Amino acid sequence: EIVLTQSPGTLSLSPGERATLSCRASQSITSNYLAWYQQKPGQAPRLLIYGGSSRATGIPDRFSGSGSGTDFTLTISRLEPEDFAVYYCQQYGSSPLTFGGGTKVEIK
Amino acid sequence: QVQLVESGGGLVKPGGSLRLSCTASGFTFSDYYMSWIRQAPGKGLEWFSYISSSGSSTNYADFVKGRFTVSRDNAKNSLYLQMNSLRAEDTAVYYCVRGGNGDYGGRYWGQGTLVTVSS
User: Fold this and answer.
1) How is residue B112 annotated by DSSP?
2) Which of B27, B43, B45, B97 should we substitute to test contact with A (largest number of A Cβ atoms within 10 Å)?
3) Among candidate residues B53, B34, B31, B51, the one with its CA nearest the CA of residue B95
4) Residue B102 pLDDT > 90, yes or no?
């Protein structure tokens, strides 16, 4: 099983600042099958990035994904008020599919 | 637009059974892999089952293997989850999730249905 470790657990930032979230895998992820999701309280997760770096439909270009192998990063270039949420990474290249524990981006 | 609507959640006693349904619209259901993912109250996301586009291939996480069964009816644009021998630790919001073209990445999610296992 591929274990995904997200860091930091909580990120305290102000609107307009840059957010950098990390997702590290215990072994290489097949075909860069790494996704990032955003979840707000009481809502279902929303796909932001798939394939490590491809933005999902309708996702603003301030969200970008990068990385390969075992190290991946989600960057939010300038935080908007609606971006404060929990972010999860997921690998979907090997069974069992696994999620990281999440990073909460909160308003400083 | 893509819509996934889960139903069938509720309160069930330990050892009981429940069947969840997910009705899909806005895309060609038979073209896509589907998954079930759950989230216990206040916890993170947990994948536990997927099914291929034709329904010929399924996979389960160890903690539900032998208790849960995923199936689909492409003619009815529907995904199902039969849950037996339910335990308190199965209490969660259950999400129906559509994959991509040939992969299980969660492109679209339903709103979720809450399953509570309690006596």
Assistant:
1) -
2) B45
3) B34
4) no
Q: Does B33 touch chain A (CB under 8 A)?
A: no
- What CA–CA distance (Å, rounded) separates A103 from A101? 7
Residues of chain B in contact with residue A97, where contact means CB-CB under 8 angstroms, are 35, 47, 50, 104
Closest residue, chain B, to A102 (C-alpha) = B44
DSSP reduced 3-state for B29:
helix
- B101 has a pLDDT exceeding 90: no
For an interface test with B, which of A92, A95, A104 has the most B Cβ atoms less than 10 Å from its Cβ?
A92
Least CB–CB distance from A47: residue in B46, B47, B106: B106
Nearest of B51, B49, B56, B52 to residue B92 by alpha carbon: B49
> Is the four-CA dihedral B41, B46, B52, B58 of positive or negative sign?
negative
Encode pLDDT of B4-60 as tens digits.
999 999 999 999 999 999 999 999 999 999 999 999 999 999 999 999 999 999 999
Q: Does B106 touch chain A (CB under 8 A)?
A: yes
- Whether residues B62 and A96 touch (CB distance < 8 A) is answered with yes
Segment A73-92 shows an average pLDDT of 97
